[in-house]
Amino acid sequence: MTRAHHSAAPADETSYDHLRLRQWLAGQARGDGMSRRRMLSLLAAGTAALALRTTVRAAAATAAGIVKPLPDEWFTVRGTNAETKWEALRGTGHLTPSDRFFVRNHTSTPVIDPGPWRLKVWGSGLRGGPGIDQAVEFGLDDLRALPRVTHTAFVECAGNGRSFYTSQQGQSVTGTAWTLGAVGMARWRGVRLADVLRLAGIRRHAVDVMPRGLDDEYVTGGVNLGHVRRPLPVAKALDDVILAYEMNGDPLPPDHGHPVRVLVPSWVGISSVKWVGDIEVAAQPLYSPWNTDFYRLFGPGFPEGGSTPLTRQTIKSAFELTEGAVFAAGVHHVLHGRSWSGAGAIRKVEVSTDGGATWRRARLRDTPHRDAWVRWSIPWQPRTEGPATLLARATDTAGRTQPDEATFNTQGYFFDAVVRHPVLVQQPTHRAATAT
Ligand code: MTE
Questions:
Q1: Which pLDDT belongs to residue 61?
Q2: Which residues, in sequence order, are bridge partners of residue 273?
């Protein structure tokens, strides 16, 4: 079996999105798509695997519908979701340990028997016929037999940092009130989605690829929106997207998509569909609530139907510290944190320990890579007792720097502004943190 690698410039994504936005606003759901010259070489023979029923059991060990334990020192539970506490990452290494990785579930974690599980690839963008009954099926062993790829990448919810729209900018927004812990980084292993699409017989007219999860249908406000699903443009699907079956060297844990999840490096977390059961490949644009009603920017300054669907993540920084952490005055401390961006590697991180009056450059402790965060540190010897505000501001290789204020949007996505982290400086005689 040959392996094909295809790259797509971000410009393709941008023009795709502009085209989609015009079609969406015009109420059109059909089209011939864009030129797909890169796909010509992909048109190879498809294979079919045995069809078996997939077994999905409702699992949900915890009240939140999440299987893994959620100890207070690691997580803040928010409805069906669990946010990682940043202080729990102190000393954990470059990757987020899977047991501390945040969980974002629309409903609850299903437990799927990997034996009978099949991935069905179907739709009008394939040569075999448009119906799901004509799907090409892949078992886990079929996927494992394909060339493997590993990639270190963060997964981050588009709403990460949402609560700061309210606490820092006085704006009210809807959605889960995350602080900065709806992000984690892991080493993912799996197969290229491009290889699977090629084996399934993708045609040059294919435009969109829509993975769908096997978790329960999502009901909100009395409306059943169906299974979680979100289309990807073919250009991205054929570029760097992985169907992952391992996370940090182990089979995917139930909460993170076992047996297989989609992993879309640097894009908003909703793109990385967990517990994937089928993938529609269409010769016309596809829509779901997750690229129309949600995961666009709405509000003043945006078109009536919202912005283009959100793709690349924004840029952020976080201290590996609890809010209100206590520091001993006059003592040498080392502050630690991490910065990441969806647009490129991190180029520099600046830190202010006086509420933004002066800035110093932090030392980067990892070689910066795209799709990955970088750990950093900076020494601090606080002299004045009382409350202090720590700030961290990152710049990436695409030239983006965290602004002082994030652009308001009603659903509170893409909070990229510098976050004000309150701490307290006390006399060393008090019970205060010593150097870390
Ligand atoms: N996939 C399915 N099937 N169901 C979901 O609820 N949540 C999405 C995405 N994939 C979701 C899903 C969202 S919004 C995010 S941010 C990521 O999964 C979170 O991945 P994690 O729970 O592994 O951290």
A1: 58
A2: none
